[in-house]
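Project standup — Tuesday

K.O.: blocked on the structure for the chain from last sprint. Re-posting the sequence here as requested.
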Amino acid sequence: MGNTAPGFDLTCELGVATAATQIEGGDADTIWHRWAATGAAKDGSGPDVAADHWRRVDADADLMASLGIRHYRLGLEWARVEPEQGRFDAAALRHYRRELSALRDRGIAPLVTLHHFNDPGWLSEEGGFLTADALPRFTAYTERVVTELGDLVDEWITVNEPNVFAYNGYSLGIWPPGRRSTRDMLRVATGLARAHSEGYRRIHALQPRARVGVAQHLRVFDPLHRGNPLDRAAARSTEYLFQGALTRAMCRGRFLAPFVQPKGIRPGTYYDFLGINYYSRGVVSGPNERTASRVAVNDLGWEIYPAGLVEVARRYSELYPGPIYITENGTADAADSFRSRFLYDHLKAVADSGLPIERYYHWTFTDNWEWAEGHTARFGLVDLDVATQRRTVRESGRFYADVIAHRGVTPDAHARWVAPQRYRTNG
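H.V.: unblocked you, prediction finished:
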């Protein structure tokens, strides 16, 4: 089978990705639990139910194994591990050991995220990553987790999408803690970059052979009018401010304007793989970013732009050479009417890229609690009935299992799952 449509081969390994807050359920004291308790999510729901994964670890691992999944990106809930500052919960750590062991017993390799959009409640009361105290707090948490779980984990992500966490929570104010301050946004982003740099060093001190990286949200920013020099300049500026400068800080320890170089962080190399979370493209005119017109979109109105995955991977791998992990890529599609086509188009772009992409993690395994969207946005290969917690593998999940089994897309799989599907456009 060659790399011509409709079939193609893949050299990268395929997996799925989740986040602790979005699937575990239970009563953890986090900024998101507190925020959701005010009814701020789109549907009024909270992460206290989510996918009830905390009680269903073995069943979910069995379901993953039945689909042939061999790589799983999961998160730890800092507030469970350290419910009070300085007090680490032995039962929570035993639970995560059991989960990691269950995965390994089924031949599933874990990639563990330490901070995924969520601070413990006690840290938020201190000011979160606006304060200098957040760095030693995160470092102590990292050291304890790696000491307790490092024999079961070879790969770590310190921080997930620090740009999105800082921007949504501290500039736009649409996520907790709901602040609207560019200054605070820059301080939080700097704090998370420092946490990554120090976490990288500490993990390697404890586990010299571990692979450690950051999962950075990278988007394509194109000028609305390519012939307009002002739009082109605005697109470049938006790209730099949203992701370029912060990625340099995370990967190289170099903090360029508008950031300020923190004391104690020396330029160097702070990544063992380039982790890319890619979802969409925006078009820019002046200070405004929007979705292009007459393009394919998902349930959230995000443009479906497969070429962008390779575009950002190529651009950033030139700046930060080494292995590339696509740590998140997926789409909101409650009807499962175009997810198989989405997967095909993005995986085909990966297969044709020639880039050293070693891993691709689909976001997400099962429907989850999707932050401010609550349960209204459905990204899962597995449908979740929130009321009953019943899991049902979608047709896109069966397609993904087939791709894993054949290490690529066969013509038969294309005919069965991809060819019947069409994207919808935004007019």
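K.O.: great, moving the ticket to review. The two ends are 37 Å apart (CA to CA). The first strand starts at residue 8 and ends at 9.
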